[in-house]
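Notes, Module 5: Reading structure tokens.

Key idea: the token line is not a picture. It is a compressed description, and you learn to read it the same way you learned to read a sequence, by spotting repeated patterns. We will look at two proteins. The first is printed below with its tokens.
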Amino acid sequence: MPPRRLSFVLLVVAVLAGGGAGCPASDREALLAFRSALSEPHLGIFSSWTGDDCCSQWYGVSCDPTTGRVADISLRGESKDRSGGLMYGRISPEICRLDRLTTLVLADWKHISGPIPPCLTSLPLLRILDLIGNRLSGPIPDDIGNLSRLAVLNVADNQISGSIPASLSALSSLMHLDLSNNQIAGPIPGDFGELRMLSRALLARNRISGVIPSSVGHMTRLADLDLAQNRISGEIPDSLGSTPVLSSLYLDSNRLSGQIPVELFSSRGLGILNLSRNAIEGEMPDAFGSHSYYTALDLSYNRLSGPVPKTLVMAAYVGHLDLSHNRLCGALPVGSPLDHLQPASFADNHCLCGGPLPACK
């Protein structure tokens, strides 16, 4: 065989041999160090983590077929209504030696504690970081904005504290952000609207304070915004009504004041709007029309005054409507959707009448 051809054959054999051996020794060692910091006594998911072939034989691990390097770790616990899916321990910083990692899912194990390793922000290819449903504590790493390819950041249902890092707004590829049900405090960064690829921003059930940045109204792909059950104050930015694809907006159980922007009721895609349990005042904007299609509209427990807008009966659809516990007054408009609602939808107002309520005098 000619020397050139022999060299090529030997190269191919070496590559195939490397692939057959699974991941490189350095990746395998990093995985074993990661595994040694965790304990999963019931399901035995780590029982397959033996031998050299970690790319095809180790549960939850997959490799890049081109480089042979570990690319994905996906370990998801049992759903919340089933027993047996419990994992204890912490996330070892040794995982950061896997410098070709694109996906890290360590979700719904309920008992993994300790901090999010700051070194995760040094993984240049990381696209998915999903750590939902554990007991992680401490802050989101300050340098999270270094992850220029990150598309999914999910640390919901933990005990994360500290503030939202200023660098978060630099995540130019981020599409899904879920920080809900933690202990995060402080304001939303003023340049939050720079997250132009973001579709879902779920920050409910924290201790977030300050105002809603007006820059949020410039997020052209934002479909779902949930800031409920925080300590957010100030007025609702007019710009929120200009967000072109916004379909659900939850601002309930905060400290918002001022009036409801007319632009919000003029929005053509908004289907769920919950502003309940704030200190919003003034009259409801008379801006409903054929573009209005609400599966849920909840304005209860505020300080709204004046009449229920006559244009409400022009809405294409209103499923659930709750205007209770306000200061509304006057005759309810006649027609759908008000004709199928119960009195509870209007309870504890100043002087509403008509429709499902007692007749006007």
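Here is the second protein, with the sequence above and the tokens below, as before.
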Amino acid sequence: MNFTLGFKPAMGDSSSVENLEKQLICPICLEIFTKPVVILPCQHNLCRKCANDVYQASNPLWQNRGPVSTGGRFRCPSCRHEVVLDRHGVYGLQRNLLVENIIDIYKSESTRPLLPKAEQQQLMCDQHEEEKINIYCLTCETPTCSMCKVFGAHKDCDVAPLPDIYKRQKTELSDAIAILVAGNDRTQALISQMEDICRTVKENGHRQMQYISDKFDELYAILEDRKRDLIETVGREQDLKQGHVRSLIRRHGDHLEMSVKLVETAIQSMEEPQMAVFLQSAKEVFKKITDTAKASNIERTEAGYESMAHFIINTEDVADMLRGINFQTGEDGEDSGDEAPEDPTTSPGQTGESLRRI
């Protein structure tokens, strides 16, 4: 059905008054503010009743605790700023007396009904030009006039007074807005919770990586200590063998030097032309040569004395064990003496699956 607009100008109609009226519209009920008017921390205003409706929708668990809500929070429908209530609930919000005074002045100086501008435009029936749209066809779900109900297309339909349907749908829309706002609040809270979980996962991951790094550093330290001990053992054996061989070298060197000198003495004796003198000296030289020859049984090291091959270690089993290092689960973790750093954000028994059910 098509409608034509008929305007009923009110006294004092001007753009400034219209702008003032727009500023006095509650964003929840879309009506002129109903006193008492409360001002939120973000400096936006609401009817206290509308503020309570939004709060109740945002905090369904508090709905059955009486008309005065205690504590809780909701978001401003205009800017989404979070409003935190004290124990007095919405009754603890400060009243905006300035806005209430402006409403009183507006009421006293304006003869127009305190309704949004759309309500001041009177719709006229396009079938009966002299008839105002004053009823609502429940069957066709459209506004119409009384003549259409009596004589026109809606004579067999169910109808209701237009103001009643207007108020009812206005209330339903306001409730739907409040529910939507509450749903947005819950979604935002869930997003914040997920962001906290993501941040906590990152922190816990870094903590566990540091824990693993520390454990491997401990293994490195153990390996380094053991390597130093084994190398020192080989070094002691090396020094012992080298000392023994060097002592033999010195001993045999002394024997060789003595033998060379004895050879020189014997040669000099053989050059003696006097037979008597030669025989007298040769006897002593011969005795020294005989004694030296008897002492020429040179001590030697046994075969393979220089080998160090007996200092061997088998690291295959240890290497396999190191390669098999993994995270402990179940009963293995309970038997271990090492404990990983406790996760401060996860209660005992809480797993990733439980987090996904938040």
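Summary for the second protein:
- The longest strand covers residues 3-7.
- Strands lie at 3-7, 37-39, 45-47, 73-75, 82-84, 121-125, 135-137, 142-144, 159-161.
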